[in-house]
Amino acid sequence: MNDGFCEWWRKTEFGSRMKRTIFENKRQADCWRHFHQVAGIQDGTPKVMCKQCCHVLHHPADGHRGTSSMRKHIQGPSCRRESSQGNDIRTLLQEKAHSAPQKATFTHQAWIEGVISFITALRLPFQLVEHPQFHALIKIARLAPSFPEIPSAYTVRRQLREMVQERQQSLLLRLPKGAKLSIALDC
Ligand SMILES: [Zn+2]
């Protein structure tokens, strides 16, 4: 078995309870040729996966079950029926990777509902949707080659502070030496 797998498994709920790594045992029975040794992702429960049809069974070492269920499986009708697909773990994973997170398709209805949810959840004024800054923001996001990273509140605050300081400096540089500036704020 792969070292990385065994290392991960020893830290799982199941693996940490076992004194030995059951995956390291040399397998004598012929039916082992047809199975991969795998484990539940949540708790590390050991399993075996049929190389032909990817059906998952209990691992014989989990509760000393023996290999009869594995033999029965590879000779049984359910395995042969699906074996024509010739799946192994790698192709299965590739298929899953391709079919996994499908890009959500855009619909006008979903977009309108998204805008409504955004405004109502944050209790924003309806006028927001007509504000040029809102339109400009959407346009900038559309220019991104992939989904743009949304900055954290901390980053926004820090960047704002930096922007204000930069603009203050550039304004001051534009003023002639010795000039005085009077600012009146109405807030
Ligand atoms: Zn099978």
UniProtKB/TrEMBL annotation:
It is found in: Nucleus. GO terms for molecular function: DNA binding; zinc ion binding. PROSITE patterns: ZF_BED. Residues 26-86 form the BED-type domain. Residues 64-86 are annotated as: Disordered. GO terms for cellular component: nucleus. The keyword Transferase does not apply. Its main location: nucleus. This is BED-type domain-containing protein. It comes from the Eukaryota. It comes from Penicillium cataractarum. The keyword Zinc applies. The lineage of its organism: Eukaryota, Fungi, Dikarya, Ascomycota, Pezizomycotina. PANTHER family: ZINC FINGER BED DOMAIN-CONTAINING PROTEIN 39 (PTHR46481:SF10), ZINC FINGER BED DOMAIN-CONTAINING PROTEIN 4 (PTHR46481). Keywords: Metal-binding, Nucleus, Transcription, Transcription regulation, Zinc, Zinc-finger.
